[in-house]
């Protein structure tokens, strides 16, 4: 059996993060697509606490949580590092990771799932948080500097930009309001491995229609 | 001026985490207590995004977020490591860190701030999550193994145990229900550096009374 296995779900940005890191680092792996409506015994066995994907299994040892997996990959396979080597730069990347996953993501989820006044307020907060990210990206090629790295992988949730009709928060993320983030997405889309790990628009549209109640 | 400065707030478990790590690692530092009702220009300058403490300033370079700071300290000062050296064990510690800060902490905050049925539900969730942590600690001296480490520092929010009258969630954390966590707290209280970084009960009681609206 493969030394590295990844249990994932195609539409999950968290699964896509791990796949992109594996590809960028050149680690060979076996991918197992999970049916989230009928989770396999492997998911329950390897991630009994959260029962969620992505799960990485390396030499039969399981790991859950995309951000935990990304750091594990970088510490275990030293070639093609995705995190900065300098401790202060690495800490700064972790600071922004927290901003994206613990500030922007919950706010955006609230904007997607609420209605009326609550939704308007959440959209305004998303707007302010994106403005902060736009400023952070100013003058850089990628979030991680001259080439794609850890923070670009983490920021893959910004591909919402691509689905303004499907995801409420996509309407906030217009090229006019956020030209730098928009430009960053265009650059990412030109990179082969990113495209291999990107959720394709048409497939996503069909998926969203099929689960219309559970908007991401 | 000191090479390492820590801006903190005495009652913040996040500030206490950083102090404990500095002491465990033997790093000398200058501590600056912040008045959160009247934040100093330093807080606004060094942490413009969140305007919160703790903030570590090392050689004039600022860092915010307790978890980010803990990893930075361990990567910059190699002696007395607080994180495990093995990548898989380190990843496992990060998995539990996420569980504590992103699952248990928000649930406990909800239990503290809500009332009636919502509070009962949140308390039940806290109970379930603590059961998972209790199982994780079973058979170990500390969360980090034979000696205090990263995960014990992160789990310092469990000192709620000590304030059953002041913090709603403290009522859930009884020695009868969670004997292993309770025993762990008794062990921690015997360690000098932990005690130096612990919020003293009497002072905390007065503080909670003074801000009775904003229960932690």
UniProtKB/TrEMBL annotation, chains A, B:
Its main location: cytoplasm. SUPFAM superfamilies: GST C-terminal domain-like, Thioredoxin-like. It is found in: Cytoplasm, Cytosol. GO terms for biological process: glutathione metabolic process; toxin catabolic process. PROSITE patterns: GST_CTER (PS50405), GST_NTER (PS50404). Its EC number is 2.5.1.18. Keywords: Detoxification, Transferase. Residues 2-81 form the GST N-terminal domain. Residues 86-207 form the GST C-terminal domain. It comes from the Eukaryota. GO terms for cellular component: cytosol. GO terms for molecular function: glutathione transferase activity. InterPro entries: Glutathione-S-Trfase_C-like, Glutathione-S-Trfase_C_sf, Glutathione_S-Trfase, Glutathione_S-Trfase_N, GST_C, GST_C_Tau, Omega/Tau-like, Thioredoxin-like_sf. It catalyses: RX + glutathione = an S-substituted glutathione + a halide anion + H(+). Belongs to the GST superfamily. Tau family. This is glutathione transferase. It comes from Durio zibethinus.
């Amino acid at each position: 059996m493969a030394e590295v296995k990844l249990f994932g779900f195609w539409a999950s940005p968290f699964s896509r993060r791990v796949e992109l890191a594996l590809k960028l680092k050149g680690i060979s792996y076996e991918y197992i697509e999970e049916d989230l409506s009928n989770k396999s015994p492997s998911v329950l066995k390897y991630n009994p606490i959260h029962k969620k994907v992505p799960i990485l299994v390396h030499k039969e040892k399981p790991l859950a949580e995309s951000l935990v997996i990304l750091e594990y990959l970088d510490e275990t396979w030293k070639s093609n590092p995705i995190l900065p080597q300098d401790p202060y730069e690495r800490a700064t990347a972790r600071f922004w990771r927290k901003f994206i996953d613990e500030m922007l993501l919950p706010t955006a989820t609230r904007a997607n799932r609420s209605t009326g006044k609550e939704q308007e307020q959440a959209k305004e907060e998303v707007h302010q948080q994106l403005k902060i990210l736009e400023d952070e990206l100013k003058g850089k090629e990628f979030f991680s500097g001259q080439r794609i790295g850890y923070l670009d992988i983490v920021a893959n949730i910004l591909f919402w930009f691509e689905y303004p009709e499907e995801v409420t928060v996509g309407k906030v993320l217009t090229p006019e309001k956020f030209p730098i983030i928009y430009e960053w997405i265009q650059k990412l889309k030109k990179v082969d491995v990113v495209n291999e790990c990107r959720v394709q628009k048409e497939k996503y549209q069909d998926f969203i229609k099929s689960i219309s109640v559970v908007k991401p």
